[in-house]
Amino acid sequence: MSDPQNPMAEDPDVDGRPADEIDFATGGVDDAKSAPDNRDVDGPLDEHEANAVRPYVDLGGVKIVPREGLHLRLEVEEGTKRVVAVGLDYAGSTLQVQPFAAPRSTGLWHEIRAQIVQQIQRQGGTTREQDGVFGPEVLAELPVVAGGGEGGGKRLARFIGVDGPRWFLRGVISGAATVEGEAAEQIEDLFRSIVVVRGSMPMPPRDLIPLHMPANATAGQQKRQVAPE
After folding, report:
1. Which domain holds residue 36?
2. Per the domain annotation, does 62 fall within a domain?
3. Distance CA 5, CA 8 (A)
4. Residue 6 pLDDT more than 60?
5. N or C, which end of the chain has less CB nearby within 10 Å?
6. pTM value?
């Protein structure tokens, strides 16, 4: 795949069992789960760990806690009209999140992180792996193509990921939170507050958990403010 924003492939069912119950070998890549020790308390949370009475914006595979100054943007695949990512504009930064199905006992982030690094480097970008509040992450300089197809400089992005129970949540951070400590803390807190809704349906690991527009959104609305009521 050529898009460093989405290096996720599909794995088939094996031996008649749902693929998310199979531990796939990763060819020497570390397949241990990568998550903070207190993830089940501080987040990102599984739907069974979240406060059931807390107000959330329901987007299907993820739920978002409303907060002042937060704007939500749904990224829609042009051909299928399928929602493929959620963009959250907050504190001078953007956090793009995608939830994926994962095996029960092994993680995806170590393997996916290696793929992200390879793809960015192939496209002329540079990467540096570093330890963040969620564990290992990738700080990248991504090439920006100008309108005429010529080089248009580079932009910074942080790739973060957390392995949960039968899901993997990936985030891409851009804007102020890549360079400013206070903005980074605000975006990291936003990522922690996300609730992943895996559901009980069998899914191959790396499949995108379905996302949808909020129930009160209009068909043409792709961006909206999600402040507390």
Report:
1. 29-103+165-215+222-229
2. yes
3. 9
4. no
5. C
6. 0.82
